């Protein structure tokens, strides 16, 4: 089943350049409303860190303060998911901010992952689960429609086209304006997009992991879908705050990622050291350079950036697309680190 012929509401991608007008869909009349902004920010606040699953010590007050600070700084797009938090914490924390000015904000949701009562992650791409979880997530958020609804990850037991059909069915019902998919290979994206035309995508992209640039991002962009990249700071490693001697607290899942181990971690620190030097020259922090590099790549719409505390989002939201010469210097830094491996 394709969604060709579905009469969609007009929706302009939120971060398209070079206009200085941020366009947001009016849910009251189906037309576009325009809000002026001094500078388009290619940043979406990702709510995974404040949901408190992989990061420790996040209080509700800190989470709310982080979102409030992001809004004050001009960020009006948020990335949430049914599984962000064991009981939908990210949806619930975001809800009060949407209550009185829904048209101001863009909400990207994801379904297809959930938690068991024993807090074990389950991937379920069945139509029944995708539908039920999307409906519950909307109730948690207190809204009637997502701007973008994504399949969180493919279910190995179910054809991805079947999951795509379920997402498109939700679109037909008006529960989302656009569809998308996350955590897929290029071939899986092609299968999903054969059903959900113009699908958006979320994929990893950072200075340490650039595979998405070869095929996945160009394919999605050529199909007309928005491209949102995550792990731009590789869970803090490219923020310039984690030292070589740093050890993670018990329960912090970052310790299990290969990039935080052995030679891969040392390579990352070598890159960060040189980014610090470059940053002093161009008046940018390491985090701003890393995010700026990611959003400067062809086809990238915006970066999903997480934060646990207000001061973190103050720094990262200042990231902008980089001048070509700075991006080239960063590419040279990475290439040099690669040539010195081993």
UniProtKB/TrEMBL annotation:
Recall the GO molecular function terms of this protein's record: oxidoreductase activity
Please verify whether the record's keywords include Oxidoreductase.
yes
Cellular component, GO annotation: cytosol
* Record keyword S-adenosyl-L-methionine present: no
Q: Which InterPro entries does this entry report, sorted A to Z?
A: AKR, AKR_Detox_Biosynth, NAD(P)_OxRdtase_dom_sf, NADP_OxRdtase_dom
Taxonomically, the superkingdom here is Bacteria
Q: Which Pfam families match?
A: Aldo_ket_red
**Which keywords describe this protein according to UniProt?**
Oxidoreductase
Gene3D superfamilies assigned to the protein according to its UniProt record, in alphabetical order: NADP-dependent oxidoreductase domain (3.20.20.100)
Q: Which residues form the NADP-dependent oxidoreductase domain?
A: 42-334
Please state what class of enzyme this protein is: oxidoreductase
What EC number(s) does the entry state? 1.1.1.-
- Name of this chain's protein: General stress protein 69
Q: Which organism is it from?
A: Novipirellula galeiformis
The gene name reads yhdN_4
């Amino acid at each position: 089943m394709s969604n060709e012929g579905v009469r969609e509401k007009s929706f302009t991608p939120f971060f398209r350049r070079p206009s200085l007008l941020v366009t947001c869909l009016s849910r009251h009349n189906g037309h576009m409303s325009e809000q002026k902004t001094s500078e388009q920010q290619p940043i979406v606040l990702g709510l995974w860190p404040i949901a408190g699953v992989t990061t420790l010590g996040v209080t509700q007050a800190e989470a709310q303060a982080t979102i409030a600070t992001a809004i004050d700084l001009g960020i009006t797009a948020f990335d949430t998911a049914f599984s962000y938090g064991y009981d939908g914490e990210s949806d619930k924390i975001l809800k009060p901010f949407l209550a009185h000015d829904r048209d101001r904000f863009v909400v990207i949701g994801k379904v297809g992952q959930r938690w068991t009562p024993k807090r074990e992650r389950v991937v379920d791409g069945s139509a029944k689960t995708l539908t039920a979880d999307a409906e519950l997530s909307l109730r948690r958020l207190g809204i009637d429609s997502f701007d973008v609804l994504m399949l969180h990850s493919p279910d190995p037991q179910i054809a991805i086209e079947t999951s795509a059909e379920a997402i498109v069915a939700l679109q037909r019902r008006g529960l989302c304006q656009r569809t998308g998919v996350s955590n897929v290979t290029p071939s899986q994206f092609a299968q999903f997009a054969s059903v959900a035309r113009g699908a958006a995508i979320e994929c990893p992209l950072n200075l340490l992991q650039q595979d998405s640039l070869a095929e996945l991002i160009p394919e999605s962009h050529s199909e007309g879908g928005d491209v949102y990249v995550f792990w731009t700071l590789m869970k803090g490693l490219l923020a310039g705050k984690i030292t070589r001697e740093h050890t993670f607290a018990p329960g912090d899942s970052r310790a299990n990622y290969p990039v935080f181990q052995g030679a891969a971690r040392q390579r990352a620190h070598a890159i960060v050291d040189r980014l610090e030097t470059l940053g002093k020259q161009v008046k940018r922090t390491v985090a701003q350079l890393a995010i700026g590099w990611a959003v400067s790549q062809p086809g990238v719409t915006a970066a999903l950036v997480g934060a646990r505390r207000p001061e973190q989002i103050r720094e990262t939201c200042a990231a902008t697309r980089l001048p070509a010469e700075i991006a080239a210097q960063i590419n040279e830094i990475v290439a040099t680190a690669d040539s010195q491996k081993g």
